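Exercise: predict the fold of this chain.
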Amino acid sequence: MYGLLKGLRVVEGAAFIAGPSCGMHMALMGADVIRFDRIGGGPDFNRWPLAPNGDSLYWEGMNKGKRSIAINLASPEGQELALAIATAPGEQAGLFLTNYPTRSFLSHAALSALRSDIITLRIMGWADGSPALDFTVNAAVGVPMMTGPADSEGPVNHVLPAWDLFGGAYAAFALVSALNRRQRTGEGAEILLPLSDIAATCLGHTGQVAEVLANGDRPRSGNDLFGAFGRDFLCADGKRLMVVAITSRQWMGLLKTLAITEQVAQIEAELGMPFAEDEGARFTHRARLFPVFEAAFAKRTSAELQPAFDAGGVTWSQYQSLHEAVTTDPRLFTANPVFQMATQPSGLTYPVPGPTATLAGESRGDVAIAPRLGQHTDEILAQILGLDSGAIGRLHDAGLVAGADQ
């Protein structure tokens, strides 16, 4: 963990990926992130994947470095506690992250009535308040119709919740941006961040909105890299390598390493097309190029090609399973300083990621682990709300709060 946000307090009332990942990013940069959940856990408390003992590995991953309080959110008294924690005083406090509906007891109006300069960031499905998840938004924006083999007839979903993950990162950016303004002006803010807008704007930023209006829907192209040269190729030893050549240097290095410069030159002469100067032409005429590359890959093993590609400046990677990557790949996991071995609440010890960015010259500090549900209930009530042990005990007796072992 880094200390860039040390002293900042963020209160999180959220579930699933986008909201909790925002809080996680803030916590890994040093913010005090307090997550409240209903007693017994929210809708993501038992979400897959699960540890052998049934604990959620997802929960552990999304809640690293946070403090946890369990509240009876179904009761008016419990709701008042959540509001009080979210709006507690402090120059570096008053940041609230949620995916509760806009008209819930955690509405911005209810929060700002208790603290006028509060910054509320609300993760939503659709901008009109309708519910949505990453995969339903993805279906609506058409990405599954562009994904998969060229001859696929139905939609092909992918396994990565991209809009959720990007939404969480964007939410952290938006919170810090609003805080910067508050420090200058004293103004609070209500920030609405629908996943539908995350998806739609990303497609706009990458030119795909303009593309579909000008050219129609993009057809499926399987593993082929759209608009340039890139695809997986099978080597003589049965291993598959993904190679990409976008720049002229990458393209020429690939041809030279595979010893197919003359063969490709013949195709260029036939088509009157200079592939080195036009990455789009490599994609347009990939049906002519691929057989030449397939034959070259089939003659050599991946062990032969990998050092040759490195020496030739070729951009490549070998396909591997996640298990192979986690257990054998030093660039990603086994020797990556972003990860540290840690024992999580599930009892499992495994590589746990800290902040993704590396601050040159600064120590990362120890990696943070996830809390147990309600682990910091008494601590938060005492520190944030100033309650004494007697008042805290009465809240427990009334079933309004719970600790980790309740």
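Check your answer against the key: The chain has 17 helices and twelve strands.
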